[in-house]
Design goal:
The protein is an alpha+beta fold. The chain folds into 2 domains: 59 residues, Winged helix-like DNA-binding domain superfamily/Winged helix DNA-binding domain (Arc Repressor Mutant, subunit A), CATH 1.10.10.10; 79 residues, Lrp/AsnC effector binding domain/regulation of amino acid metabolism (RAM) domain (Alpha-Beta Plaits, 2-Layer Sandwich), CATH 3.30.70. Helices cover 30% and strands 19% of the residues. The strands form 2 sheets. Strands 4-5-3-6 form a 4-stranded antiparallel beta sheet, covered by helices on one side. Strands 1-2 form a two-stranded antiparallel ribbon. A hairpin with a 5-residue loop joins β1 and β2. The longest helix is centred in the N-terminal third of the chain and has 14 residues. It is elongated and about 60 Å long.
Length: 189
């Protein structure tokens, strides 16, 4: 098969030897195709990208090992459960310790993160069956050491979502703005 010439991209990563190397266009094409269809076969990629099966297998392994993960998610709303965010204002620099404790206490917390903002330093996404289950969790969290305040917001409707794992277009435009790049604003005249 005729090999597709690869140009250097703006995306860099560390290889097995710890050297920073560019993620070339062929690997980016493989990644884009896999983000579009996680079940795409090596032979389909080989045909689409005009590369040998051996090259696809080798490069796909790099892409899978370094950059992609595949997992299944439960749609909790299909069970009639609700999803919301708990924001916890924490004192004395104990945010990470408290986040670990809260995550271990409640198996229905989907993720928990540390934040820097005006009101909360720990934020937890939780699913719950009813308001009683939620109230119980909030009351338990309020009683934990170093908790100054607890607030809650429920997601009533997800208007749109963009998961990092589905952002195949992030690789489409190499001239896109990066951190620190000034973006010209459009002014109405």
């Amino acid at each position: 098969m005729k090999s597709k010439k690869s140009e250097t991209s703006v995306f860099l990563y560390k290889n097995k030897k710890g050297k920073i190397v560019p993620l070339d266009d062929v690997n980016l094409d493989i990644m884009k195709n896999m983000l579009n269809d996680a079940t795409v076969s090596d032979s389909a990629l080989s045909t689409k990208l005009n590369l040998s099966d051996a090259k696809i297998k080798r490069r796909r392994k790099i892409v899978e090992d370094k950059f992609l993960t595949r997992n299944y998610l439960i749609d909790v709303s299909a069970f009639g459960w609700r999803i919301g965010d708990i924001q916890v204002d924490v004192g004395k620099g104990k945010s990470e310790e408290l986040a670990e404790l809260i995550f271990s206490m409640f198996p229905n917390i989907l993720d928990i993160s540390l934040r820097i903002n005006s009101t909360a330093s720990v934020s937890a996404r939780i699913f719950y069956r009813d308001i009683h289950e939620l109230d119980g969790a909030l009351e338990q969290i309020k009683c934990l050491p170093f908790v100054k305040d607890v607030a809650f917001s429920e997601i009533i409707k997800m208007v749109r979502a963009r998961s990092i794992g589905t952002m195949k277009d992030v690789f489409a435009n190499k001239s896109r703005p990066t951190a620190g790049t000034k973006i010209k604003s459009r002014k109405a005249h």
